[in-house]
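FYI - complex with oxa(dethia)-CoA, inputs then prediction.
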Amino acid sequence: MVKSRIAGIGKYLPKNVVSNKDLTKYMETNDEWIQERTGIKERRYADRTGETTTTMAVEAATVAIERAGLTPQDIDFIVFATLSPDYYFPGCGVLVQRAMKMKEIGALDVRNQCSGFIYALSVADQFIKTGMYKNILVIGSEKHSFGLDFSTRGRNVSVIFGDGAGAVVLQATNEGGSGILSTHLHSDGESAEILAMYNPGTHANHWGQYASFDKAEIGEMFMSHSMIDEAQNFPFMDGPSVFKKAVVKFPEVILESLTTNHLKPGDLNLLIPHQANLRIAQFVQQKLGLRDDQVYNNIQQYGNTTAASVPIALCEAWEKGLIEKGDLVCLAAFGSGFTWASALLRW
Ligand code: UT7
């Protein structure tokens, strides 16, 4: 049976390093609080003059395609995960297609926040298993720095996030025993509003509050001062509630991937958890009884890069020689939605 394997992987991190101390220029915070609660020491911010979610994605994709021994013309399909697209629409997938001068292939954007890359990988995996495509570019990229509240009001969110991109080329293979073994996707919209951006732009999005379009006053439908005063144009997070759910759902979805394949935590060579908070990753490690060398974290250097965090960490671990052929690798994520997901693969 045809399976999909990662044939090439790349990452891109902006050069601009922003330390915890740098953030104290804008808000009341301190290095001790940030490190103790999140593990983060520094993050990267995109260059304000030209770097976007798409340009960073193109950098990562260029490396991934080259490492797969392909050219952009060989790519059959793009799946792009981000919550910080260059435009409200169109999505970043088409911008990558244009920038990389690819053929007129399909391009799909996935909006699943922290679990976006694993959802994107799962979508690509299905297209490959059905035989529809052979080489799919899967990207996670985020430019958070342009949309954070850098006043003290937004500090619980803003200190966490960073910019960056990761990409893989997912390729059809007949080689038995290697590739993606299974993917597992979940959601529960019950708490959608506890990690969300309510109004990203000029329009109020609360159609539900009006019985019908006719009943809404036109003035109420556009961005108002009160929406700005309420910070509705910035991400909102009830951090402790997200934390409590994450430490339950992370182990659950990792175990689901292992039991589906008749494997145990001890069989894992490397777990790459979404880099949300070092304390969450440490809790998951302890809960599953994993050794330090079985879990890869780099949130200390890059912060939480949402859809980009899993491919960046996977790429970095691979570049350091921590993943070898035949290794069992689990990718797992939890975040806004809530959505959560895992992918188990044999490298
Ligand atoms: O990737 C998407 C999914 N996201 C997550 O998984 C995030 C999950 N949640 C978390 O990581 C943690 O909840 C946070 C890191 C966001 C916050 O840590 P916490 O230990 O839950 O802190 P808290 O929100 O309960 O806040 C504790 C105190 C508050 O002060 P008071 O009310 O106790 O006086 C906050 O105002 O810390 C204060 N605080 C800060 N102080 C200094 C919040 N942010 C900051 C800050 N610097 N940046």
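The radius of gyration is 20 Å. The first strand starts at residue 3 and ends at 12.
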